[in-house]
Automatic annotation (TrEMBL):
GO terms for biological process: establishment of mitotic spindle orientation; regulation of establishment of bipolar cell polarity. It holds the Pfam family fn3. Residues 1-25 are annotated as: Disordered. Residues 202-299 form the Fibronectin type-III domain. InterPro entries: ANKFN1 (IPR039269), Ankyrin_rpt-contain_sf (IPR036770), FN3_dom (IPR003961), FN3_sf (IPR036116), Ig-like_fold (IPR013783). GO terms for cellular component: spindle. It comes from Eurystomus gularis. This is ANKF1 protein. The lineage of its organism: Eukaryota, Metazoa, Chordata, Craniata, Vertebrata.
């Protein structure tokens, strides 16, 4: 019998005598015995190896116990304990796919007792079925053997308990009897579960979509009925024929966390039919054909042969920047500090002076002017100077009105913090001949360099989308950066944000707070904005809404507060690709001037996209507070020039309001004001944040 053979093998290994001695055994014995009479000096390496060996033995013993604990939790149907063990140990540490002495795996016990929650937990952790069960007959024979052996063991122990007098050995036999009776009932339940089970029904909601020019994606749900047996894997088949003869390929999916599969390496322009079937311990169930029944690998660009918009742009800009650097390399302005020689005596005296004046060059108070402040935060802590002030340096004490163009220029500079020194060298040092704008920007570069030098770090982070101003004429440009490692800074230290807010003594009145007080009051909102603006969308196709409003010196765009680096949007589907057939249908729909064209034929990818778009438009209009009837009554339209592609994993279709309402002019009333949860960003700031 299989289990008896396995037990005999284990006993044989346990009783196996030591192997034959080698010819050098006598010499080794002499060395070992002679070592007894010498002082026992153990080398460091030998000691560490011995210690490591003991630790490894303890570790293996501990892991063996965890493996036994997992089997026990599955047998007792203790779902919480199973989750606890799977979280605490890796599948390798648990020996998740190593059979026990009965030739069973934890997943075998779970599925044959029809414990679906535990089986799903094990499957998601990477559990497999026993490789010994190559057929239904072998599984049935193995279960029958386990039942017979358990029954025989129960009868033997029962006879011993009845015939023997009460003593310590007898109580131990009773314990063994109870354990084997419980195991006998478990094996009978497993055998009955196997005998009553049938193959599963076909998977449901099998949907096929085009993933790219060489791949299609199939998604599906579990069968409505698994016929008293947990589904442990699925099979995806594809063919160029609706009869699946001949088949082109198949794939077995045994990782069931996400029920989808991408078929790659297909020929563009060829129709592929797909079907999916489910498997349980009784075998494969019937296949279910996909909807639509076939898909043709393609991409919307194939409609007119359009190349990606940004192809080669990053490389071209890098090349252009390299050329500019080469031109400026031998320029007079590239030789800094020649007009300001510093003697050794001056530097020494400056260093000595610094010893008696430990205060940094960060500012404590603001006067009328333009300033730069850098906010570094980690969890609930923020970097401050030794005077418990947020790091602030002066840009220009004569600048009382920040022009939007200067602020946008500063924001663009923040994309190349490492090039500040080079930018300073490229700006002429002779300030007398410079324009006012150039002088201001040169001072901005000086302030950035000063902040970088005082903090000892180049990257100052992301610029907040608007400066903080006060009635005294102070303007603060703010940079924000989250520190995720134990990074060291100079001249600053960490303090809790709440402590900084409560301990700071304001020098202004509540009616007219200074820019620094305003910053400190609203710092939590700014940190939240910074964290949200770094979030990324999950892969998929989205419907975005473009709404602009103009002011005297800028155009602003409507964005959600929760994701300010993206337009207002809703998700259409998880597949980001638009196929050629879908894009062709969208072009026809966009070219119709009168009412929308008829609904596409059923069971086509175009019809599925049509239904998805209807749902997405309703959801998006509700989000931005626009009555749905206005969308159909007015000229709301889809942007049909291109699909906006972001890195290949995220793509956007744009919904545009009527031409006259795309951008609201100053003084123009917007009858449909979005609900709370939105803000407007300067268009250039939004574009830079989107690139990040």
């Amino acid at each position: 019998k299989m289990t008896q053979q396995m037990r005999d093998l284990q006993l044989a290994q346990a009783r196996k005598p030591p192997g034959p001695s080698s010819p050098n055994a006598a010499k080794r014995l002499y060395r070992n015995l002679s070592g007894k009479f010498r002082v026992n000096y153990t080398s460091f390496d030998e000691g560490s190896l011995a210690g490591r060996g003991e630790k490894e033995k303890l570790r293996k013993s501990y892991l063996f116990q965890s493996n036994a604990a997992l089997f026990e939790a599955v047998e007792l149907q203790d779902l919480d304990r199973v989750h606890e063990l799977l979280k605490q140990y890796s599948p390798e540490e648990l020996d998740l796919n190593t059979p026990n002495s009965e030739g069973l795996l934890p997943l075998d016990i779970a599925i044959m007792t029809n414990n679906a929650p535990i089986a799903r937990a094990l499957l998601q952790a990477g559990a497999k079925e026993s490789p010994h069960f190559v057929s239904l007959e072998s599984r049935s024979l193995h279960l029958s053997t386990l039942v017979q052996e358990a029954e025989q063991r129960v009868n033997e122990l029962m006879a011993q308990v009845v015939n023997e007098a009460p003593n310590t050995d007898c109580s131990e036999k009773e314990k063994q009897l109870k354990a084997w009776e419980w195991r006998y009932r478990l094996y009978k339940r497993m055998k009955a579960g196997f005998e009553h089970a049938r193959v599963p029904d076909a998977p449901t909601n099998v949907h096929l979509s085009v993933a790219s020019s060489s791949s299609v994606q199939v998604t599906f749900w579990e069968p409505l009925s698994v016929n008293s047996a947990v589904v442990t894997k699925y099979k995806v088949e594809w063919s160029c024929s609706p009869t699946f003869s001949p088949p082109v390929g198949e794939a077995v999916i045994d990782k069931l966390k996400n029920l989808h599969f991408t078929i790659q390496g297909l020929v563009s322009g060829t129709a592929y039919y797909v079907q999916v079937s489910a498997y349980n311990m009784k075998g494969w169930g019937p296949p279910q054909a996909s909807v639509p029944p076939f898909a043709i690998p393609s991409n919307w660009r194939e409609y007119d042969g359009r190349a990606p918009r940004r192809r080669g742009q990053a490389e071209a800009l890098d090349h252009l920047l390299g050329q500019v650097k080469t031109v400026h390399q031998h320029c007079v302005c590239h030789e800094p500090c020649k007009n300001q020689p510093q003697s050794r005596k001056h530097s020494v005296s400056k260093s000595l002076k610094h010893l008696f004046h430990p205060g940094s060059k960060f500012l404590k108070t603001l006067k009328r002017g333009l300033y730069l402040t850098a906010i570094f935060y980690k969890d609930d802590n923020i970097l401050v100077t030794h005077e418990d002030q947020i790091p602030v340096v002066e840009i220009d004490d004569t600048y009382s009105c920040l022009l939007m163009q200067d602020f946008l220029w500063f924001t663009k500079v923040s994309c190349m913090w490492d090039e500040i020194l080079w930018l300073r060298q490229c700006v002429t040092v002779s300030q007398s001949s410079c324009s006012c704008i150039l002088q201001t920007r040169f001072k901005m570069l000086l302030a950035i360099s000063q902040m970088q030098g005082l903090l000892g770090i180049q990257d100052l982070g992301q610029v907040f989308f608007e400066p903080v101003k006060d009635k005294q004429g102070n303007i603060l440009i703010i940079t924000l950066k989250e520190v995720k490692t134990n990074q060291t800074f100079e001249s600053v230290r960490w303090v809790p944000i709440c402590k900084l807010q409560t301990s700071r003594k304001s020098v202004s009145s509540p009616e007219e707070p200074t820019a620094l007080d305003t910053l400190l009051i609203s710092i939590q909102d700014k940190l939240a904005y910074h964290q949200r603006s770094s979030h990324a969308l999950s892969p998929g196709l989205y419907l975005g809404y473009l709404k602009l409003c103009s002011a005297v010196d800028q155009i602003r765009v409507l964005v959600p507060e929760q994701l300010p680096n993206i337009l207002c949007h809703v998700k259409i589907r998880s597949n980001p690709n638009i196929s050629r057939e879908e894009w062709e249908w969208l072009q026809k729909m966009a070219s119709v001037e009168e009412p929308a064209p008829a609904e596409p034929e059923a069971e086509t990818s175009q019809n599925h996209l049509f239904q998805e778009l209807q749902v997405a438009i309703k959801e998006l209009m509700t989000l931005v507070n626009i009555p749905l009837q206005e969308v159909w009554a007015k000229d709301f339209r889809l942007y049909s020039q291109e699909v906006l592609d972001f890195g290949g994993q995220v793509s956007f279709l744009l919904l545009l309001p009527p031409s006259d309402d795309v951008c609201t002019a100053p003084g123009q009333n917007n009858p449909y004001t979005p609900r709370s949860g939105f803000l407007t960003l300067p268009l250039q700031i939004f574009e830079i944040g989107e690139e990040r």
